[in-house]
Amino acid sequence: MTEPRAIILVLDGFGIGPAPDAADFGDQGADTLGHIAETCFLGRADRAGVRTGPLHLPFLESIGLGEAAKLATGRLPAGFRSTSPEGIYAACREISRGKDTSSGHWELAGVPVLYEWEYFPEEPSFPEGLIELLVGEAGLPGILGNCHASGTEIIKQLGEEHIRTGKPICYTSADSVFQVAAHESYFELERLYSLCRMVRSILDREDLNIARVIARPFTGSNGIFTRTSNRRDYSVPPPEPTLLDSMLAEGRKVYAIGKIKDIFANRGISEAVKAPDNNGIFQAVLNVSARAVPGSLVFANFVDFDMLYGHRRDIPGYASALELLDSQLEGLVRRMRPEDLLIITADHGCDPAHRGFNHTREFVPALLLGPRISSGSAGIRSTFSDIGQTVASHLELPPLQKGKAIDLD
Fold this sequence. Notes:
By secondary structure, the protein is α/β, with parallel strands linked by helices. The chain contains 13 helices and 14 strands. The strands form 2 sheets. The protein has an 8-stranded mixed β-sheet, sandwiched between helices. Helix 1 packs across helix 12 and helix 11 (304-310) packs antiparallel against helix 12 (315-334).
């Protein structure tokens, strides 16, 4: 027998139905998959030259996506059929106190966030003292924004003024985040990164418990601006050792693809691979998994579902991106080695049919597949950490502090 490996694919913002505590977050009725499937089934997500008709996810459906959603909501998504899945499926509930990227990923890796993040208010969002420190230490003429905003909308509104004045665009959302948008040419990319590192340092120094600082570079002119793939996240480190730390302590390899390195503050990472979009991330998964050593973990985040489609409330785009990934997954599975374990999951919801532009508190799927993995329901899991615990068990690592491993036999 070959030594086992594991691959975790996180579909960022892909919820499958409202969590039991969704109302506490203002997210009652949120259902990312359900609302996308319903809109497509009714023909309301048709887009000429891109997609038409019901949501078509034959591979994900065959490994239990619809059945996992049924565990969460009590019904199959519109257009899905009842199946006998080839793999193990479950619906996972989050126990972390928030519904953000950091909390979701850390809980997947065995460390739920059981404390409260701090958040910035609507407007003005940032404390006057914080802005004074930032402007003074960075030598800025000031900042623009200072509010809750959609990233694409705020650069449309303030992009020209940013170019004219040299003031970076600073904004936040309902998440625990400080975002800085700046033009790659006029402000310069490395200067933006340096500024965001400074923001991270100031937030930490002032004991402001903010999860992430995000650099949001863009290009364009004359009021037409486009965000680029050079985003970078500056996260606080997890409060306790995660699955990734455990792996490195045992001499194992962790290959981080997409923004995984940033989310874990570069802790517990052997090698990081960046990619510009979902398709690039999938190609990186194929390339890395082909050479990943025995006993290793390949951990990837597919950011476009959340960033490009969920937050922008783009149901047709979200549906098309799901269909593209579905068409690619079988190629990955064909390359898997006998002892490999593939887990497809998510970190939170981002329902494009829900009000606002923020993440949604939802169950996430856990779809487990491998040449020697059994099939059937693993039920509703009480924490995302069951995924990390399952990986630890599969790779024969010491048990994590949180979670209960899913039986793969």
